[in-house]
């Protein structure tokens, strides 16, 4: 049996000419995700906009992202790619596995020059791909490993939307045993040792088809093992479990081990959820998803996301002057109008140095006094004027609580912008001043945030404000904020809107 399998692999290998050739069409469009480019872009952009990423210390060397149908796992995968977007690596090595083929000792590398999805062509980095293929005879060109393979194809969608001008290297494990996983980690670390501006993505879902709470318990045990950043502990725990901890356990092990060899020294968990969180009617049989990073603390400063400074400009009571506020409001409206009319992103420009600084911001839309959309970044991820542009579009088109704003509605829409100070962690909730402080609560993987103006708009007491934030926004216990069992962060916001004009 082994001889026949090896013979088939050998024949497949011989049938492919030297060098990478051609392009592959997506197999899962219209099945696992929308085959409409517009709908697909909108859905992914919505997930990315809603992913709340805190500070990331160090350079991201590797990460974990799920690969289920996009409506189930997309909201979690977005956390990984939102974090990657802050560093925008140009070379993305995706390590998945074959769900359908088991070939002992076989690792496949994608052997075509591009992979075409409904959103266009994503190019392959031929140099790294060829060096992996030349590394050892265990690594081969085997196109069947990439046919209808969701562990690979689903990652490409987020790479296309979150990362600019990225090239990919696609690897599929046809066997996830320990020895082959160790071999792949060595191959990856050797080939990437002198590379810069890259990241390795391990593609894996977590527990499969257990009831909601049973899956959540097992997945949290797995996450604890990933958090230790100990590949041996993770792999052995996966094998000893009566129910596999992750479907891509070999891929995760290989990436974890390779990134350690390449200098990563910490594992950061960004988000966990399972399919029951998005489709409550399926809670009797769920699949789990995790978003995680493997980071290198000693990375150079240019690779690190900049935190909010926490200081107003010297000599000014506010962060922005009147002219700067008007410019941001105009950028927000122009960006929404262009996007609603053409689907294109507004090419915003400014000569104002303050607006080029990195600051967090929210854009809120009201129609006839009622909330019509609100999305933002708590932590600075780019120039303020570009953040306002992007959040304006997201609030109009991607706030999942509302239907997208129509072009006809814009005459009735008022735009409000909140520019944020840095987060301050507190232990005494009585420090929260209603109307002055915005608040974020966080417990485990769950978090929620209210802007300062929510207190003024609702007239809530501090207890009503915090109870609503904890239950309705964060989905945690009503009284955890009183007991110190959840984290509390406060911040201030400079709020201004078109109604003030």
What is shown here, in short?
This protein has 501 residues and is of the alpha+beta class. 36% of the residues lie in helices and 23% in strands.
Give structural notes.
The structure is a single chain. The protein has 501 residues and is an alpha+beta fold. It has helices spanning 2-14, 37-50, 70-85, 126-135, 150-162, 178-192, 212-227, 231-240, 249-261, 275-278, 322-342, 384-397, 453-458, 462-474, 480-483; strands at residues 23-25, 59-65, 91-97, 107-109, 114-117, 120-123, 139-141, 167-173, 198-203, 208-210, 266-274, 286-296, 361-367, 370-377, 413-420, 424-426, 438-443, 446-450, 487-491, 493-497. The protein has two domains: 2-6 and 13-303, LigB-like (Protocatechuate 4,5-dioxygenase, Chain B); 322-500, Hypothetical protein ph0010, domain 1 (Glycoprotein, Type 4 Pilin). The chain is built from 15 helices and 20 strands. Strands 2, 3, 4, 7, 8, 9, 10, 11 and 12 form a nine-stranded mixed sheet that branches. Strands 14-13-15-20 form a four-stranded antiparallel sheet, with helices on one face. Helix 6 packs parallel to helix 9 (249-261). The protein is globular. It starts with a helix and ends with a strand.
């Amino acid at each position: 049996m082994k001889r026949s399998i090896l013979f088939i692999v050998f024949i497949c290998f011989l049938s492919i000419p030297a060098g990478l050739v051609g392009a592959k069409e997506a197999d899962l469009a219209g099945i696992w995700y929308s085959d409409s480019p517009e709908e697909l872009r909108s859905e992914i952009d919505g997930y990315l906009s809603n992913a709340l990423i805190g500070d990331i210390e160090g350079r991201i060397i590797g990460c974990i992202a799920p690969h289920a149908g996009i409506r189930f796992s997309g909201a979690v995968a977005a956390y990984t790619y939102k974090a990657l977007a802050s560093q925008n690596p140009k070379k993305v090595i995706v390590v998945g596995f074959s769900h359908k083929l088991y070939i002992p000792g076989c690792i496949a590398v994608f052997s075509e020059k591009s992979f075409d999805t409904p959103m266009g062509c994503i190019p392959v980095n031929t140099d790294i791909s060829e060096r992996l293929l030349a590394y050892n005879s265990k690594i081969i060109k085997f196109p069947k490993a990439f046919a209808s393979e969701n562990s690979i194809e689903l990652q490409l969608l987020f790479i296309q939307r979150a990362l600019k001008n990225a090239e990919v290297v696609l690897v599929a494990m046809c066997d996830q045993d320990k020895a082959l996983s160790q071999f792949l980690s060595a191959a990856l670390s050797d080939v990437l040792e002198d590379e810069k501006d890259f990241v390795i993505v391990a593609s894996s879902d977590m527990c499969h088809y257990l009831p909601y709470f049973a899956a959540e318990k097992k997945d949290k045990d797995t996450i604890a093992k990933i958090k230790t950043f100990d590949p041996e502990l993770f792999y052995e725990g996966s094998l000893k479990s009566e129910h596999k901890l992750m479907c891509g356990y070999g891929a995760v092990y290989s990436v974890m081990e390779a990134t350690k060899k390449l200098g990563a020294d910490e594992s950061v968990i960004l988000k966990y959820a399972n399919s029951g969180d998005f489709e409550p009617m399926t809670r009797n049989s769920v699949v789990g998803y995790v978003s995680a990073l493997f980071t290198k603390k000693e990375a150079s400063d240019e690779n690190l996301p900049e935190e909010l400074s926490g200081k107003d400009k010297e000599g000014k009571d506010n962060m922005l002057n009147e002219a700067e506020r008007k410019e941001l409001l105009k950028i927000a409206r122009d960006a929404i109008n262009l996007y609603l009319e053409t689907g294109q992103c507004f090419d915003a420009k400014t000569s104002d140095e303050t607006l080029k600084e990195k600051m967090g911001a929210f854009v809120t839309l009201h129609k006839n006094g009622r909330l019509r959309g609100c999305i933002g970044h708590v932590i600075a991820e780019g120039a303020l004027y570009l953040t306002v542009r992007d959040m304006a579009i997201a609030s109009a088109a991607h706030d999942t609580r509302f239907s997208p704003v129509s072009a006809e509605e814009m005459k009735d829409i008022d735009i409000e912008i909140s520019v944020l100070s840095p987060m301050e962690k507190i232990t005494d909730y009585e420090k929260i001043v209603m109307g002055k402080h915005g608040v974020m609560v966080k417990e485990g993987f769950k978090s929620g945030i209210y802007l300062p103006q929510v207190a003024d708009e609702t007239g809530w007491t501090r207890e009503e404000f915090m109870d609503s934030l904890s239950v309705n926004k964060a989905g945690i216990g009503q009284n955890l904020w009183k007991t110190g069992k959840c984290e509390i962060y406060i911040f201030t916001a400079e709020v201004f809107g078109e109604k003030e004009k």
